[in-house]
Amino acid sequence: MAKITLDNLAHSYLAKPASEDDFALKQLDHVWADGEAYALLGSSGCGKSTLLNIISGLLHPSQGRILFDDKDVTAATTADRNIAQVFQFPVVYDTMTVRDNLAFPLRNRGESAAYVAERVQAIARMIGMEDQLSKRARGLTADAKQKISLGRGMVREDVNALLFDEPLTVIDPHMKWELRTQLKSLHHEFGHTMIYVTHDQTEALTFADKVVVMYDGRVVQIGTPEDLFETPAHTFVGYFIGSPGMNVIPAEVQGTRAVVQGHDVSLTRGFGTPSGKVEIGVRPEFVTLTAGAGLPVTIRRVEDVGRHKIVRASLFGADLNIVVGEGVEIGADMTNVTFAPAKVGVYVDDWRQTGEAA
């Protein structure tokens, strides 16, 4: 297990990057705590796998350093970093049995036969392959092979970190849930530092202690699932986390109020008169349909998703999403909305503003 420090870290796939736009991974300065589970979350191409490969040693950064427990490992090989990595697609030895695949990392390090047998049995139980230990990997399904990859990554107890690069892509949906639960249990039991790359917010939010949200090569927020939902630091976080995501609305902000097309929206903090691209953000859960008070909307459709309804509406020609309770009747006269003032965020050039107590 290790504390991981990213010191002035950045990477470009170009030989001579001329500007910040040439960097796939823009400057990072972060310390990730020993023994915590992190999820790197973001859309395709945001830099998640690049960062993971730098941490693992498969890629050397263009600038900066990476440290494990304050020891500089930037130039160290993957083997010398003492990490285990599981990739998006299964990497197994087809001619070996499931048992031998799982045992390989332990035998390679000279562990006793008794310890190897004990760990293999425990991991096979965790991935649901106890009855297939004697089968050769060749001929197994893709999801079975990926379970072997997961198991081989987790079989060692002495690693500095476990790295997972979208490891459940080829796993069927029911097994995905089970394996995420198992990974979380493993983390609680052994306390490994875990880093899990995914573009699936459900995977990230159910697996991690802290979610690292990436956008355009940057880390835009690190926080608990609650942090990301309640106080998105960037409009991308608000959009990407939640279903539907946060409503982002152009506005003028004047102290403790925002003005949207001539209509006032109350704020609970003071923000002065910010300039630039000024917007307010409010999650659909904190928007209320009313009959007369608030901003005028046009309801386009209502989607009943069981636990609640999602109202798709237009606000001055832009999309607005509203979440209402399953038992709430939506009357024909409900053509306005209000926002919960304490849940409205102010964003300037996409970044959340702190404001001052009103």
UniProtKB/TrEMBL annotation:
Keywords (A to Z) from UniProt: ATP-binding, Cell membrane, Membrane, Nucleotide-binding, Transport
SUPFAM superfamilies: MOP-like, P-loop containing nucleoside triphosphate hydrolases
Record's protein name: Carbohydrate ABC transporter ATP-binding protein, CUT1 family
Keyword Cell membrane listed: yes
Highest taxon of the lineage: Bacteria
GO MF term set: ABC-type ferric iron transporter activity; ATP binding; ATP hydrolysis activity
Any single Gene Ontology cellular-component annotation: ATP-binding cassette (ABC) transporter complex, substrate-binding subunit-containing
PROSITE patterns found in the cross-reference section: ABC_TRANSPORTER_2
Species of the source: Jannaschia pohangensis
Gene3D superfamilies linked to this entry: 2.40.50.100, P-loop containing nucleotide triphosphate hydrolases
All residue ranges annotated as the ABC transporter domain in the record: 4-241
Keyword Chloroplast: no
Family: Belongs to the ABC transporter superfamily.
